[in-house]
Design a protein that fits this description.
Blueprint lengths: L2 H13 L4 E4 L8 H6 L1 E2 L4 E2 L2 E4 L4
The chain binds zinc ion (ZN).
The site of zinc ion has 8 residues, from loops.
Length: 56
């Protein structure tokens, strides 16, 4: 039974391409906590978040 192993590999390869969340004000890559709270520690205020597949 190798099909389950192949399926696990497919899932893993998708996890290797995470989504980055970037502050719209300062273009800094946000941490998970900052993204959840929509709060940039650099700007010290609530900000708009941009989701991208590329790091800032
Ligand atoms: Zn910011």
């Amino acid at each position: 039974m190798t099909s389950s192993v192949d399926a696990a590999r497919n899932i893993h390869s998708k996890l290797l391409r995470p989504t980055f969340h970037i502050c719209k004000s300062c273009s800094r890559t946000l941490s998970v906590a900052e993204f959840i709270e929509r709060h940039c520690e650099n700007c010290k205020r609530d900000v708009e978040v941009i989701a991208t597949k590329e790091p800032a």
